[in-house]
Design goal:
Layout: E1 10-11, E2 14-20, E3 36-40, E4 42-45, E5 48-51, E6 56-61, E7 68-73, E8 79-84, E9 89-92, E10 99-101, E11 117-121, E12 124-128, E13 136-139, E14 147-148, E15 156-162, E16 165-171, E17 177-180, E18 197-200, E19 207-211, E20 216-220, E21 224-229, E22 238-244, E23 255-258, E24 261-266, E25 269-274, E26 279-281, E27 284-286, E28 291-292, H1 300-306, E29 316-320, E30 325-330, E31 343-348, E32 353-357, E33 363-369, E34 397-403, E35 408-411, E36 419-423, E37 434-443, E38 449-455, E39 476-482, E40 484-491, E41 500-509
Antiparallel strand pairs: 1-2, 2-41, 3-36, 4-5, 6-35, 7-8, 8-9, 9-10, 11-12, 12-13, 13-14, 15-16, 16-17, 17-18, 19-20, 20-21, 21-22, 23-24, 24-25, 25-28, 26-27, 29-30, 30-31, 31-32, 33-34, 34-35, 36-40, 37-39, 37-41, 38-40
Length: 513
């Protein structure tokens, strides 16, 4: 079936009126028929939505649940993938065929409600979880086992790299402090030596996260600060500038960097902190250094109504930089197991739009494999996210990865997931009633289903009709008369399609009541 050609075709219920599909705004009380109340297993596109591919296993099983993973850069520009169970660290062998235990004499004791924190500094991967006496490290290229980081660093739950410093946070016994290494020396932890030092925060609560990069962002329970290196200052290595008094991070893993922007889930919702270049938000622009409430009035209420709040601090933020999307993986209130994520809310920072996906994973990460191991792979999470021949990948292949419930690393390269979108309640025949005779989605799929929920007033129960399949003319014929109509389009799992842009609604006025 070809796409809808416009409003000139006439069907059994009258003129076909094309209705573009706007944003998914589940928090908005609106009768704007272009607003979506559901956008499940779809990604935003310019002018509409596209499919989400299912998970496809790639590696051998890790042997236990994944509590953290990291794709580390090697000296040759490739990647080495490390993954942790609750007690051990493993390195992935060639083509994902096996996992080698590189824990050496060290074992973890990661609580079920937490994850392992990892960061790469030069040739070393540093790992910490707060239960080890000190952070551990391994040489990415030649290391065969973990070693204790030198210089007597403190025990910490989290680690980040800011410029040429290694930063530890979530310090055992001192949650309001962060501490950093010497300049370009991760084995130097004596305060006052080679810029190594610590910072205690008298207000804002405990430190809940640190996001690294060329500059740092320190998240507390009720504050957010920018961390800027002062190379000309012999006394103070960093300057801390408070960005917000009431916005903090929900947990150690709830914030991430996408490009030059830090994206944060706080106790009150979702925020973006823009670095150089700013960020498009809500049709406007967030300037450099600004903090934007990207979820307010849009998805915050939906998220907190759907998340298992007892697992809120375990929410995992991961950026897919090639597709300009941030994923917050969480355990929903009505599904999933205690140690798994069964849903992710997704923000496209270039399009400033939200959706969500239902997928069960243990952990997610920007991952990579060697080119020779991708002979049977067919793309990344989104076919539009870039070419696998991109020279910026330095001869290794980037893909957005995850560990499934069978403890295997895989990529989102399978068949399309089932996609569902719901519009809001459209007052099509204002001020009277309207008779809807059918709906034709502007979609390149051959198979889809449409149902309608019609009601006389917004306080009436919301009940959808049985689904209708497309007829020869592509219209799903459903006859309903009411003031308000809400449409649902479902594209079955495994259906090939690339875009869903609008709905063509056949309707006529049907009097006043």
């Amino acid at each position: 079936m070809g796409p809808l050609r416009g409003a000139g075709a006439v069907g059994r219920a009258g003129m076909i009126t094309p209705i573009p599909l706007g944003e998914w705004l589940p928090d908005a009380a609106t009768v704007d028929k272009t607003v979506l109340t559901r956008a499940r297993n779809v990604f935003p596109r310019i002018g509409g939505y596209g499919p989400v591919k299912n998970y496809s296993a790639y590696s051998a099983t890790l042997g236990g649940q994944c509590y953290g993973a990291f794709a580390a850069r090697t000296v040759t520009g490739g990647y080495a993938i490390f993954a942790a169970t609750r007690t051990k660290l493993y390195k992935m062998g060639a083509a994902g065929a096996s996992w080698t235990d590189v824990s050496s004499v060290h074992t973890f004791d990661i609580p079920e409600s937490e994850l392992l924190s990892m960061a790469q500094f030069g040739a070393n991967l540093i790992v910490t979880n707060g239960n080890s006496p000190a952070p551990l490290y391994i040489d990415v290229d030649s290391g065969t086992g973990l070693s204790t980081l030198g210089g007597s660093p403190p025990s910490a739950k989290g680690v980040a790299v800011i410029g040429d410093f290694l930063v530890l946070y979530g310090l055992t016994g001192n949650p309001k402090r962060i501490q950093w290494s010497g300049l370009n020396d991760i084995a130097q932890w004596t305060p006052g030596s080679n810029y190594s030092d610590f910072q205690d925060f008298p207000d804002g609560g405990d430190v809940t996260g640190v996001v690294g990069g060329e500059y740092g962002v320190v998240l507390q329970t009720n504050a957010c600060r920018r961390m800027v290196f002062l190379p000309e200052d012999a006394t103070n290595a960093f300057r801390f500038v408070k960005i917000a008094d009431t916005v903090g991070g929900a947990g150690i893993w709830s914030a991430t960097r996408g490009g030059d922007t830090v994206f944060v889930l706080g106790s009150s919702g979702f925020y973006a902190f823009a670095g150089a270049g700013g960020l498009p938000v809500g049709g406007g622009s967030l300037g450099e250094g600004g903090l934007a409430p990207i979820g307010s009035g849009r998805v915050n209420e939906w998220f907190f109504a759907n998340v298992d709040t007892s697992r809120l601090t375990r929410t995992l933020a991961v950026a897919d930089v090639r597709a300009s999307r941030v994923f917050w993986f969480f355990k929903s209130i009505d599904g999933g197991q205690a140690g798994l994520f069964d849903r992710a809310i997704v923000y496209d920072w270039k399009l400033d739009k939200w959706t969500y996906i239902d997928v069960t994973v243990e952990y997610a990460l920007p991952a990579a494999t060697s080119p020779s191991s991708l002979d049977d792979e067919s793309g990344s999470l989104d076919d539009e996210s870039g070419s696998l021949d991109d020279p910026a990948l330095n001869a290794s292949e980037y893909q957005f990865g995850a560990f499934n419930a069978d403890h295997s690393l895989g990529f989102f390269t399978g068949d399309n997931l089932e996609a569902v979108i719901d519009t809001s309640d459209g007052f099509v025949g204002r001020p009277g009633l309207s008779l809807v005779g059918g709906i034709r989605p502007d979609v390149d799929a051959e198979d889809y289903r449409v149902s309608i929920a019609s009601r006389m007033k917004l306080s009436d129960p919301l009940t959808f009709t049985a689904e209708a399949a497309p007829s020869v003319d592509g219209v799903c014929h459903i006859r309903r008369s009411a003031r308000y109509h809400r449409a649902r389009v479902r594209i079955p799992a495994g259906t090939e399609w690339q875009y869903l842009n609008s709905l063509g609604v056949q309707s006529n006025a049907s009097g006043m009541r």
